[in-house]
Specification:
The protein is mainly beta. It is about 15% helix and about 45% strand.
Amino acid sequence: MTDTLRRVVVAAGLLAMVGAADPSRPVFGAGVLRRDGVIIPFAAFDGKKWVATWPAPTRQDLTVPISVGSVPKRWWGPTKALETWQIVTAAGARAVTVVQPDWVNVHCVRQVGLRTDYRTPAPPPPTEQPYPKDGLAISPAQPVEPIRILEPNGSEARSLIPAVFEAFNRGEREVEERFGHPFPRRSEGVEPEIEAVYAYGDAFRVYYVEATRRYRPLGSPECATLAFGTGWFTRIGNTVTKLEMAVDVLACTRPGASYMLPLGAMRIDNRLFWIAQFSGWNNERFAVIEIKPKGVEALVNVWGGGC
């Protein structure tokens, strides 16, 4: 072996050792914990990036592995077979163990999941959809921080109104310009109603907001059209800044509306990720969203089932 080749081999070995020993870049799987004790894995972190390798729901016949060890390796992605999971719920964090792979109904499709020894006193019937979720599941265990649910009429949520008001009007104008609007510009002076606010962080505080504005024909108390907006905002000191805002104009029964269920926040290598479910009447999806100083990016956005 030449001296040059020897130096290359030694350098490559040192780089591999450094990469393997880097504790700031863990490898783990993530899933959602259903109230019936079934974990649906939907993402994994390979030490550098998020990936989605677990099979999607299907209308077709399912082949369910008989044990954790028989789950195909490609389903796990970068992790080994995961038999013990850390669950993070409103009651705190604890470990659960997989009893066996199983399948569950999700709206009009079926999904393979991992049935665990997690129990609740009275789980809802399988026909309830979207099926209630109790928290986030991570394996191996990693630090997960809670995302706060704010009171929509509380002082902190109300302090967002000026920024939400401006962003909502702009988003609704964009809808009108692209698709038209049954009540053009009629209610731009009316504050949208904040229905939900989720928050995380201190010096750099992140908010996710769901807000609506209802339209009624003149002389009628009945809702005719609903503008539904969702947006990301940040606060540094007293300054609230919009990152993103999207508005849809819907029927008042809200077909197509999607609501967040925040599962937890994670910080990895100085990056911030929100993990959440988004669901409507007849569908659900799971997402890993990176929060950046000037925007947000969905790194994982997988279909969780629907009709």
